[in-house]
Every structure is written in structure tokens, then in C-alpha cells.
Design goal:
Blueprint: H1 3-24, H2 30-35, H3 42-53, H4 56-69, H5 74-98, H6 103-110, H7 114-146, H8 151-201, H9 206-209, H10 221-231, H11 244-260, H12 262-265, H13 274-292, H14 295-310, E1 314-318, E2 321-324, H15 329-335, E3 340-342, H16 359-362, E4 375-377, H17 382-389, H18 394-432, H19 438-461, H20 467-480, H21 482-491, H22 497-525, H23 548-564, H24 571-581, H25 585-589
Antiparallel strand pairs: 1-2, 3-4
Helix pairs in contact: 1-8, 1-18, 3-8, 3-13, 4-14, 4-18, 4-20, 5-11, 5-13, 6-7, 7-8, 7-18, 7-19, 7-20, 7-22, 8-18, 8-19, 10-14, 11-20, 11-21, 11-23, 14-17, 17-18, 18-19, 20-22, 20-23, 21-23, 22-23
Length: 590
């Protein structure tokens, strides 16, 4: 059976499963549509949260980042996992105790302001659409390679599946669909990792394999990889190149961004009790750990296999000329997607993969008959191409495709429902039509979800970067806008509506402007005569991926300063904050 047909079968069966679950658990009222009727068990919610969290960035892009960045890629592991600790300790139980449907609803009541609610909705939509662009890009990559269709066609198929189970099932349908998607994606991620670990080291546990000997050579995989990449002019795999302040800021931005992501926070509104919110966070960390602890091994094995597959040496002479091994089949299939490209600059037929940005290496390049690096690899393909590079069976490759689609669609569905709730519950019912009936609000939510899916599909055609980079921008925006407002709303009763609104707007505008300047306008100007490397102009040496920390600090300073020079919140609001923070035995039992 061909790989394409097998992939269609595996992916198609997973789609049937998701749609079947959505039909079985479809939403009948707004409570089901927004928060699954507050009836999800902690274990199921933990698994759904893990699927919601482990997006295309985690499944497709994170190991690809680690494969090329090496030690520097650890910031994504530390930031994304550490954020759940913050979420479990600082936010989840208190927001669950507050007992509302959405984050903007909490901000509206805590800061006694419709304007604050509107600002929170704007922040939420900015964050969610930035995040969902990365998910739709992941869907397009999977479909374009494994199902051999145009990215446009792949996006339309993905949009159609999400439309059915998100619009029909709402949060209730999405929750139980995400439980199934977690099972698919974690199985799809770990099975090829185990096979490749056994191939390279004989150790079946990926988390141990990248510290084990390669093929009985006496050299462990990481040391072997260090030797290979440095010989090609790249920096040492196990050492970092980023400045300490940038590493700190990216890690912290991802951590606090996690705690401020609306589609993650809303998961803790779906459990029956406050205590269950904490337990859910614990289960989610356990389920996430299965993938996150394997990612460094997957990244290192992918980089090792890539280099050893494409630079295999000569096979003798043909017609008096030195001949090299032909490019492998996996290379040709991925080259057809445009995500992998080879330009034979010196005409020798061999792929010259070196770091031409390294001046020390370039000075000695003539002895290799080298005329510049000839290979460009999109980082987002490494996890998806890894089983093919390693020569694994077609069923494993098809399973990886299904897992990647599950990861992308699970997060996309959660984000789209958050956007839907922001429009129907926070804007329509909360601002413009307070008297709307439950039935009409549910209809408005489904229409908003359908419209959000169309916008998400459009963003998938032309996202502003590779998957993990786009997702990092979303985390920065969440860190700079919603996180301070939520945290101050729980722990600092003196903060008022004027401070919260000013803080959210200043944090969001500063962070978005910084990202847009260095990832948008600056790139257009970089070709000008005065153009230089944009990194030289970063504020304090902080990259756009980490600038959310500065935006967050700005938010805190503005919110507190404005609050201290304006009227304090009303007494009943201050009492409400104390009630949220201080547990009561009768409330915990309820």
C-alpha cells in the first residue's frame, strides 16, 4: 500500500473519530458550548488541556528548533513547562472559584467596567489569531507533504473538520475530542522516537538515547553531534549562542504567557470544583511531560540523521568524473513541497551543507571545492521528515501525519472557541444585547466560531513566521496584556479599572509594535544602504520572542501607577477580591 493511500486512511479514520465524538457530545446550551457544563473530570480535563497545549508548535516545530538551535532551543522547553506551574499556583483555582465563562468576563467584573471587558476582548483576539496562524500553517505543511495536495486544499479540509466538531460540539465536544487527539498525538510522537533511538543507540527510551553511545562507537550521540556540526562550521550543539538576558526574557515570556493564554485558562472553568482545577493542572503536566522530555532526543536524532543522510561521500568515478551518491527519496519528496531546497552552486552534484556565515570556516572552504552553502531546510519539517530519513515503515510515517494534524487541530479548536465566546458572550451579551436569550446566544456563538475558522484559514496561507516563532509571539502578547491584569485582579485589590485598562493597552501596543517593527517593517528596510542586522538594534539585546517580558513590566508599572493616582475600587469589589483569594470550607465542598 502506498504511503499516500495509507496516510489518507489513517488521517481519515482519525477525522471520523473526532466528528463522531463531537456528535455524541454536542452542546445543547451555552454552558455546554462555553465550559462543557462544568462536568469534566480532572483526568479527562488534564488530557484535554495537554492536547490543547501541545499544539503544532510542540509537535512539529519544537524539536525542529532544538535540532538546529541545540542548547538555545531549551528556552522553549523551560518556558512552556514552567508556565504551567505558574498557572496551577497563581491563576487556575482562583479563576475557577470566580466561576464565570471567560477571561474578559472576569476582567469586566473585577474592574467593574465594560471598557475593560472590550479591551480584554481585543487583547484576547490579538493573541488567539496570532496563535492560530501557527496551527493552520502546521496543518498546511502536513497535508502538502503526506497527502500530496496543495496547501490551500489541505487548509480547507482542516477548516472543515474543525468547523464540524467545534461549531457543533462547542467546548463539550472539543474537550472529549481533545482527549482522543491527545492519545493520537502522543502515540504518533513517541513510536518513531523509540524506533530511531533503537536504530542509533540500541536504547529504546528516547530520553536516555541521546546520552548513549552511537552504534558501539564509544562516543555518545551528543558528543558525536558536536563533532559533526562544528566540523561543518556550525556552533557547538551543546553550547548556547544567545545572550543571558535574551534567554531569560524568552523563557519568562513563555512562562507568564502560558499563564495568560485564554484558551488554556478556560480549560479550568470546565471542572466541577475549585480543587479539581489544581488536580487538572497536575495531570496536564504529567501528560505534557511524555512529549516534552522526548523532544530534545527527537531533535538531536533528527539533526544527526539529516547530516549523515545527505553528506555520504563519493561512490567512485563515472566517465572519468568523481560521482557522489544520489539524493535519497525522502529528500526528493520534501523538496517538492518547497520546504527543502538544494542549489548546486559548484556543479559537483553533491549537497554542500556548511555554515557559510562562519568567517573562520569560509576561509578554509576552498579545500572542499565549496562555493557556499547549498541546502536550505525549513525547521518545521524535521519531526515530520524524521521517520522517512530514518527509513521507518510507511505506517509509522502515516501515524506521524495523523499526530501532527491532531496537535494542530486540537489547539486551533480551543482557540477558535475562545474567540467565539469573546464575541458572543463578552461583546454581544455583555455589551450590546444583555437581554439576548440562551438560544440566540448559542446561535451567535456558532456563527462567530464559523467566521473565526475562515479568518484562521486565511492566516494559515501566509503566517508571519515558522510555527514555534509565531506561537512565541502569541505568548509574548499574552504576557504583556492579559497576565498582569489577571494577576493584579486576584492579588492586589487596590488596582482599579483605569489602571487595568491603561496597563493592558500599553503592554499590548508596545509588544505588538516591537514585534511588527523587527519582524515586518525592519526586514523591508534591511536591504537599504544603511541596513544592518536587526539584532544589533534590539532593546537591551532582547529578541522579539522575549520582548513580552518588557511589555509585561510596562503593564505592571502603568497599571499600578495609574491606580494609585486615581480613585480606589469600590468596597464591594475589594471584598470580592478577598473572597476569591481566601478559601472557604463551604465553597470548596460545593
Amino acid at each position: 500500500m502506498s504511503l499516500q493511500l495509507l496516510t489518507w486512511i489513517v488521517v481519515g479514520l482519525s477525522f471520523i473519530l473526532y466528528i463522531g465524538i463531537a456528535i455524541w457530545s454536542r452542546a445543547h446550551n451555552t454552558g455546554d458550548f462555553y465550559i462543557a457544563g462544568k462536568g469534566v473530570s480532572p483526568i479527562a480535563n488534564g488530557m484535554a488541556t495537554a492536547a490543547d497545549w501541545m499544539s503544532a508548535a510542540s509537535f512539529i516545530s519544537m524539536a525542529g528548533l532544538i535540532a538546529f538551535l541545540g542548547y538555545d532551543g531549551s528556552v522553549y522547553l523551560m518556558g512552556w513547562t514552567g508556565g504551567y506551574v505558574l498557572l496551577a499556583l497563581l491563576l487556575a483555582p482562583y479563576l475557577r472559584k470566580f466561576g464565570k465563562f471567560t477571561v474578559p468576563e472576569f476582567i469586566a467584573e473585577r474592574y467593574y467596567s465594560k471598557t475593560a471587558r472590550i479591551v480584554a476582548v481585543i487583547c484576547l483576539i490579538f493573541i488567539s489569531f496570532t496563535y492560530v496562524a501557527g496551527q493552520m500553517r502546521g496543518v498546511g505543511i502536513v497535508f502538502s507533504r503526506f497527502l500530496e495536495v496543495e496547501i490551500t486544499t489541505g487548509l480547507v479540509i482542516g477548516m472543515g473538520v474543525v468547523f464540524v466538531y467545534a461549531v457543533l460540539g462547542g467546548m463539550k465536544g472539543v474537550t472529549y475530542t481533545q482527549v482522543a487527539q491527545y492519545c493520537v498525538l502522543i502515540f504518533a510522537y513517541t513510536v518513531p522516537a523509540v524506533f530511531i533511538a533503537i536504530q542509533l543507540t540500541g536504547v529504546p527510551i528516547p530520553q536516555l538515547a541521546f546520552g548513549s553511545e552511537v552504534g558501539g562507537s564509544g562516543t555518545v550521540l551528543l558528543d558525536k553531534l558536536d563533532d559533526i556540526v562544528t566540523s561543518l562550521g556550525f556552533h557547538q550543539y551543546t553550547s548556547g549562542t544567545k545572550s543571558r538576558i535574551d534567554v531569560f526574557c524568552i523563557t519568562l515570556a513563555l512562562m507568564v504567557g502560558t499563564a495568560g493564554l485564554p484558551h488554556v485558562i478556560v480549560r479550568f472553568f470546565t471542572v466541577p470544583k475549585v480543587r479539581d482545577a489544581r488536580i487538572s493542572a497536575g495531570w496536564a503536566l504529567l501528560f505534557i511531560a511524555f512529549l516534552y522530555t522526548a523532544a530534545p532526543a527527537v531533535g538531536s536524532m533528527a539533526r544527526y540523521n539529516l547530516i549523515n543522510t545527505i553528506q555520504t561521500g563519493d561512490v567512485g568515478t563515472v566517465d572519468g568524473n568523481l560521482a557522489y551518491e544520489a539524493r535519497p527519496d525522502w529528500f526528493n519528496t520534501w523538496e517538492a513541497t518547497g520546504l527543502l531546497s538544494f542549489q548546486d552552486k559548484n556543479g559537483d552534484g553533491r549537497i554542500q551543507y556548511y555554515n557559510d556565515a562562519n568567517p573562520e570556516f569560509a576561509a578554509t572552504a576552498d579545500r572542499f571545492g565549496w562555493n557556499g552553502n547549498e541546502l536550505n531546510v525549513d525547521r518545521d519539517i524535521m519531526v515530520l521528515a524524521n521517520p522517512e530519513i530514518a527509513g521507518l515503515p510507511n505506517w509509522v510515517i502515516a501515524l506521524v501525519a495523523a499526530g501532527a494534524v491532531a496537535a494542530a487541530l486540537s489547539t486551533a479548536a480551543g482557540l477558535l472557541l475562545v474567540i467565539s465566546a469573546a464575541v458572543s458572550h463578552d461583546l454581544i451579551k455583555g455589551i450590546f444585547a444583555p437581554g439576548i436569550s440562551d438560544k440566540n446566544e448559542l446561535r451567535a456563538g456558532r456563527i462567530a466560531a464559523a467566521f473565526a475558522i475562515l479568518v484562521a484559514g486565511y492566516l494559515g496561507f501566509d503566517p508571519p513566521g515558522w510555527v514555534a516563532q509565531v506561537v512565541a509571539f502569541a505568548f509574548g502578547l499574552a504576557a504583556a496584556s492579559l497576565f498582569p491584569a489577571i494577576l493584579l485582579g486576584i492579588f492586589f485589590k487596590r488596582v482599579n479599572r483605569e489602571g487595568a485598562i491603561a496597563g493592558m493597552l500599553s503592554g499590548l501596543l508596545f509588544t505588538y509594535g516591537y514585534i511588527e517593527f523587527f519582524k515586518g517593517l525592519f526586514l523591508k528596510w534591511a536591504g537599504a544602504p544603511w541596513g544592518v542586522n536587526s539584532a544589533e538594534h534590539w532593546l537591551l539585546g532582547i529578541s522579539p520572542e522575549g520582548i513580552g517580558v518588557i511589555g509585561m513590566c510596562l503593564n505592571f508599572v502603568v497599571a499600578i501607577s495609574v491606580s494609585l493616582v486615581t480613585k480606589p475600587p469600590p468596597e464591594h469589589i475589594q471584598h470580592m477580591v478577598e473572597d476569591i483569594r481566601v478559601p472557604r470550607q463551604m465553597e470548596i465542598k460545593s
